Structures are given as structure tokens and as C-alpha cells.
Amino acid sequence: MERESRYWLTAQVGVKATELFEQGMKNTWQWAEGGSFIRLFSDGEPRYGQQLWRLANIWLKNQNLPKDYGYRKVWREGVEVAMKIKGSQGKPRRKWVRQEHPFTAISAKKDVHANHNEALNSSIRRRCSAYRRRQNHYAKTRSGLQRAITVQRLIYNWSRPHTSLGKGTTPAMAMRFAQRPITLYEILTSRRFQDITT
Question: What Å distances lie between residue 192 and 27, 93, 189, 196, CA to CA?
């Protein structure tokens, strides 16, 4: 999720294996790569950071390495990655994953949290029966579950206004992809949304 706009970038389902995290991080990095400053917060799953490290690490040259800095392989300048430590409910504990570039400003601890993602996860469980019932209603196969979560992502991004963004503003409007909320009828009858679901 893009933090400022609350735009839900990607939705992928599958077995909780390395390949799933690898594909998810590749998609996320395509969105973030062009930015000058990137903060990534994960919910305690180390494989997010491991996969991003493969995409965003660099080697510092000797002439660019401060004398008091003991690391050569670091994140690209402007990239900061933090992970929530699981089981820390009520005790905000987090750790920074890998070493930052020496010229990257580190965020204050009060700004490092995954609350927005956790709120989205709770919303998915409330609104999508496939995630809260053992019967896996309408999603007995992986393709069915992918279809169900894709529908949730479309509604979340394009149709349902988000209160934290202002009155009547959807995440797609905050990203300047749309000028107004898109109705479900428009989504279901327009081929223009085919690229968004892939």
C-alpha cells in the first residue's frame, strides 16, 4: 500500500512460499523505484525485506565510504526498510532491516509503523468472506481466491471513499488516476479496468 494515498498497489494470493514474496516485491519495486525516498514497512515477515534487498542493494565505493561507517553493501540511497516484530501488541517494537546508505535520513520511531497495512488486513477479513470462513466461499481454488481479492482491491481503490483522505476521496483520486469515485456499474461494464486487475 502506498502510504500517503492509501492506494492498494497489488493483490496476489498463493502458497506462502518465497516465490509469492518475490513476485509481490518485484511489483512493489516497479512502483517505488523511481522515487527519491522510500520507506517500506512490513508486518513482521522477513521475506519482504530479503526479496527487496536483492533489488535495492548497492556496493559503496571506497572514496564514498565514511571512515566511521563499517558497511560496504547497503540499501540504495533514500531506501529505508523497517519490520514490525510479531507478538509486540501493546509494545511498539520494530527493527530496521539491513544497513542504510550513510546519506539516508532515518525516520523517527513514532513514524515507523504498519498500522495502515494492518487496518487493510482487518478490512479484508471483514468484507471478504473467503478470508474469514473456513468454507472459503466462492474461492475454493487459487484462481477463485485471486478473483475475490481483486474485486476487493478495485472497490477499495476506485469506488469507496477513504475517510482519512478527505470527504468523498478515493485512493485512486489521491493518486490522480480519477477525478471522482467510479461506480461498480462502470467497473463491471468497462474494459478499461482490465489492465488494473492484472
Answer: 20, 43, 9, 8
Provide DSSP, 76-137: PTTEEEEEEPTT-TTS--EEE-SPPPTTSPPPPGGG---HHHHHHHHHHHHH-GGGT-TT-T
Q: What is the 3-state secondary structure (H, E, C) of 132-155?
A: CCCCCCCCCCHHHHHHHHHHHHHH
For the chain, the domains span 18-115, 134-193
Phi–psi pair at 93, nearest 5 degrees: -115, 135
pLDDT at site 28: 84
Averaged confidence pLDDT in the chain: 79
Q: Pick the closest to residue 115 from 96, 94, 97, 100 (CA basis).
A: 94
Grid coordinates belonging to 170: 478515493
